[in-house]
Specification:
The protein has 654 residues and is an alpha/beta fold. Helix content is 37%, strand content 14%. The chain has helices at 23-30, 36-39, 51-63, 101-111, 118-138, 170-188, 253-260, 307-314, 331-335, 345-357, 374-380, 382-400, 455-475, 489-506, 514-528, 535-555, 567-591, 615-618; strands spanning 5-6, 43-47, 66-70, 88-89, 163-164, 191-194, 197-205, 208-216, 222-226, 229-232, 265-266, 271-277, 300-304, 328-329, 369-372, 409-418, 421-422, 435-437, 620-625, 634-639. It binds flavin-adenine dinucleotide (FAD). Residues 518-650 form the Fumarate reductase/succinate dehydrogenase flavoprotein-like C-terminal domain.
Amino acid sequence: MAKHNETMNKLDAKIPAGPLADKWTNYKDHQKLVNPANKRRLDIIVVGTGLAGASAAASLGEMGFNVLNFCIQDSPRRAHSIAAQGGINAAKNYQNDGDSVFRLYYDTIKGGDYRAREANVYRLAEVSNAIIDQCVAQGVPFAREYGGLLDNRSFGGAQVSRTFYARGQTGQQLLLGAYSALSCQVAKGSVKLYTRHEMLDLVIIDGRAHGIITRNLVTGGLERFAAHAVVIATGGYGNAFFLTTNAMASNGSAAWQCYRKGAFFANPCMAQIHPTCIPMHGDYQSKLTLMSESLRNDGRIWVPKKLEDAKRLQRGEIKGHDIPEEDRDYYLERRYPAFGNLVPRDVASRAAKERCDAGYGVNQTGLAVFLDFDDAIKRMGKKVVEEKYGNLFQMYEKITNDNPYETPMMIYPAIHYTMGGLWVDYELQTTIPGLFAIGEANFSDHGANRLGASALMQGLADGYFVLPYTMQNYLADQISIPHFTTDHKEFDEAEKAIKQRIDRLMSCKGNRSVDSLHKELGHIMWEHVGMGRDKAGLEEGIRLLEDLQGRFYKELHIPGEANDLNIELEKALRFEDFIGIGLLMAHDALDREESCGGHFRIEHQTPDGEAMRDDEHFAYVSCWEYMGEDKAPIMHKEELVYEFTERLTRNYKS
Ligand SMILES: Cc1cc2nc3c(=O)[nH]c(=O)nc-3n(C[C@H](O)[C@H](O)[C@H](O)COP(=O)(O)OP(=O)(O)OC[C@H]3O[C@@H](n4cnc5c(N)ncnc54)[C@H](O)[C@@H]3O)c2cc1C
């Protein structure tokens, strides 16, 4: 990829006029509607059955549209959302601790380092309470207090308790709720479910999204589907880094193929690194495990104060408990007294890296810090700690063979979430008319850093409460168009291109598995596009990525046949896209000469190591337009105009 050009094209985010708190209501009051009889005549493809996709498909089905819903797993319930542990935010103020819609809005926009759109974030906070009501009505078993009311806990970047949870299995319980709503529509016939179908391309007819081509993962056959509009709810692209907390099947391919068909890709460099993951323990590992942020409610993070204690820990001569209290450095509490262990993820991750880089890491590799529950157990008793976090402790012990009730957990930052994604306007529509993107697949609400428990909120807000309105505004113009068929030449061309792509991969005569190449990609990404980025490192990363992209076709080996169940072929197709995504991330990171949120440019930091934003030059969303195979993409800027909130330097110290 050559150096990109830059343009100042104006992107229309379609933000409604009026006061911040009235925008969404005004929008709903004036949007176009589709009447019930016409809804039956309109087909919508929803790709993805995670919290975003399942909630959207169920809602659109219930409204009366014909929905076709796709996923790659054998059941919608196995979408990556099921892994979400800690909770979902809402501004209910059940704790009477000063929460409000505005405060949730403010925390979220500040947490994102002022790189998100005000109007979108406010709407998110506004609909957050309805999500909890909806899920409770579905029977989601949120944790309750002794008196029977819904309980809350705290997450990073907030000084109130607004996180609703179901032990450490919130995603699972929410997905079961969404799945039951979806199943109801499947039974009624308004949603048709296509499991084990992977979208490989988007079909555009007359400039509008009108269909997809999928590969049936069981038979290997290519299949065509047509509709009046397409919704992408396919999750994030964090697995470009190979070792992440994401499910193994999470991928960025659907979004990437939409980008190649003309949808802009926004803020690709904005990836989140989560501070509390179980550290990597070997070369053969293919996955990292998250220890939920909720643990930072009661766990205290520390490393030794003395370098010699750290060295003895690294050599295995002593254990954490051998270090007396006065020799422990609770570095988050020391550096950020106001938020302590509950600083946002980007801040906590960088602080852990800083301590480990300075030699204070506590495991063999020196790449770990302690998360200690000693105080919590003394304060609340083991039983209460077990009730709150039991399943997480059990998971930790199973993986590490260490009992966290007795020895402090060891944790280290890992890639977890991608704030970047398909660019969408206020209506969640991409730059391709009729193509919408929701959930982690879009870039919309988290700016440069997502706060904990906000992804579930956004996915469900998009699916249950935003898209069902905004899509109608688009579909109202489509009612006179009859059901689309798949015999258009655009379907022929798209299918032919996929066949050629698959043939090319199957005919590679190398001797490396996809996983081995993917590990190499992940290593380059972590080293050069990871937690601390600088110009020289990014340029070297781009060189290495281009080299890998060139070697991929010579070194790849895929066993088996294309027209059959072939997991290696599935992985190769996703991997090919991950290299492209990785390159775009690196170019975007190189372009953004500031530090903000999860994007930390080493050149741009304060003397005490905090991120240094540059609002004068970088207060925009970078929106990349694909220009062709061997051409550099063009970057368009959506200026982020802040009308209601003053952009301040994020401060979690006082
Ligand atoms: C371990 C872990 C814990 C987390 N805990 C929390 C938490 O406590 N609170 C919180 O707010 N967030 C949490 N998150 C983040 C949150 O879980 C995700 O951001 C969110 O679930 C994403 O939902 P989604 O619906 O956008 O996508 P996903 O759940 O990733 O679903 C993607 C769907 O798209 C389908 N798909 C993908 N590609 C294709 C394709 N090409 N063709 C067809 N179908 C396709 C998949 O089959 C799947 O159905 C956590 C994340 C992780 C990794």
